[in-house]
């Protein structure tokens, strides 16, 4: 089972730079690989990051601006080339279904991968499974756009001393049921991940970020250019951090940076003025682990 981590494939907005590729993010979540917003060059970035086509189980597109989707042809064709054996589910705004079809079939290739399109027509639950519950919320951009949220079901953490006191071990632990289960364990909150790209502040942003262990969110502009952010449907680093502070986010990952800024520390410093949690300024090929689970006392488990 893979560790839960974000593999950053690209962090540039609109155009790539010498240091930043177009967008692209792979969330490793146990046996799943959720690929978000693959921009131009994502296939090569996957190779550089050690991400195989077989790692991808779901594809998510927030909206159909090129920096968030021009990598789809290469990724989809690589799925066929590598004979990926499992179904890959693709989620995207229904208003962009024509764009997805064009990207899906952008050139001639031996199309053998099972890529299943799931156009989103309204916010809500997209899928449920062993990974938890996938949700989508509308965002406020210049095109129809959705953000995504993954919610793991709550569970229980076993207390070794209590198990030993009851003489419970091995397979018997898996077979535990209330009330004995309640006597040897404590509630464990499921982990939550949120992905928010191009948008102005809106209700959907806060709904997605609520209680997230990790929030990956665009911060295209700095506060001094807030007027530009509003005009073009984006967030500033300060706004993203204010969302994180209000929503109880544990780890804030800022990305999707405008090429007008050359010093990434400016984004960190601005966010830190309003958010006192962990801040990550994403860079291409970073691997960002989800925060460790909290134990029954609110501290992090080792």
Description of the structure:
With 302 residues, this protein is α/β, with parallel strands linked by helices. Helices cover 24% and strands 28% of the residues. The chain contains ten helices and 16 strands. The strands form three sheets. It has a seven-stranded mixed β-sheet. Helix 7 crosses helix 9 and helix 9 packs across helix 10. The chain is globular and about 60 Å long. The model has no long low-confidence stretch (mean pLDDT 94).
Gap from first CA to last CA: 18 Å
Main β sheet profile? 7 strands, mixed
Spans where pLDDT lies below 50 across 5 or more residues: none
- Which structural class do you get from the secondary structure elements? alpha/beta
Helical percentage: 10-25%
Elements, N to C (H/E): EEEHEHEHEEEEEHHHEEHEHHEHEE
Give a quick precis of the structure.
This protein is of the alpha/beta class and 302 residues long. The chain has helices at residues 42-49, 72-81, 97-104, 160-165, 171-174, 180-183, 203-209, 226-232, 237-247, 265-272; strands spanning 2-10, 24-30, 32-36, 58-60, 88-93, 115-120, 124-129, 132-138, 146-151, 155-158, 185-188, 192-196, 214-218, 251-255, 278-281, 287-289.
